[in-house]
Amino acid sequence: MASSFSSSSSRPLTDRVAIVTGASRGIGRAIAVHLHSLGAKVVINYALSSTQADLLASELNNASSSSELQAVAVQADVSDPDQVKLLFEKSEQVFGPIHILVNCAGVLDPKYPTIANTALEDWDRTFNINTRGAFLCTREATNRLVRGGGGRIILISTSIVGNNLPGYGAYAASKAAVETMTKIVAKEVKGTKITANCVAPGPVATELFFEGKTEETIKRIVDACPLERLGEPKDVAHFVGFLASDAGEWINGQVVRVNGGFVV
Question: Does some domain include residue 99?
């Protein structure tokens, strides 16, 4: 990919186009903002939060020194193949060939049920968005990134896959499947100059993390981290930015736990 695009040390993603799913808030939002700061044109995908997504697109466009459009919000349910296809088509219509996919859309059951107490509809919803959504977005990306001369597929997993906490059965299982799929995709796209990796955050201070947790639970999680704090969305976003750049080209087929040592 390095030979196909112009870049600079301060804005290494200049002339590249990135789709970030689940980008209206949380980690996805931070990733979209950071990739934009590195020079990328960003497609902000959202499912429901149209106000937040539109506002973010407006903020990124207003912050840009260029007169060209730099960010656009596009609604799509990542579990729906037709909507995923339309997401990529709209992105190409606005910006041209796609170079980067960051699949950040995901759900977590805030009731934290045991496997025995997990409702079938909650299990299915988790897999539909987390696993089916990652598959559909990855499938579309592998067939489109080649048009831009290669690129990056970056899927967001979770460090919980590494420590198997009770109450996260559906969530961890759905992400473990994504990690395995990523490793296989990295091999299947040989010769395309596309890389595929998973970024697996630990506890990050987002709405998704805080929902359903008591203060005591949060304190216990913080105490378990060697750096004695929760992660911030920017901690994950900065690493995603590295993977998306030419500097991250030699990292391929990997699951990288970005968690401050919470899970090793």
Answer: yes
Determine if the pTM surpasses 0.90.
yes
Mean pLDDT score across all residues of the chain: 94
The model's pLDDT over 138-190, given as tens digits with 9 standing for 90+, comes to: 999 999 998 889 999 999 999 999 999 999 999 999 999 999 999 999 999 99
Task: Residue 236: name the closest of 201, 197, 195 by CA.
Answer: 201
Residue 171 appears among annotated catalytic residues: yes
* 54: containing domain: 2-203+235-253
Q: What is the CATH number of the domain that holds 6?
A: 3.40.50.720
Q: Is 259 a domain residue?
A: no
**Structural contact between residues 260 and 202, judged by C-beta atoms closer than 8 angstroms:** yes
Question: What's the rounded Cα separation, in Å, for the pair 9 and 253?
Answer: 25
The sign of the dihedral angle between the CA atoms of 223, 226, 228, 230 is negative
Kindly report the number of other CB atoms within 10 A of residue 79's CB atom.
23
Indicate if the alpha-carbon torsion angle 59, 60, 63, 68 is positive or negative: negative
Exactly one of 46, 112, 168, 171 is catalytic; which is it? 171
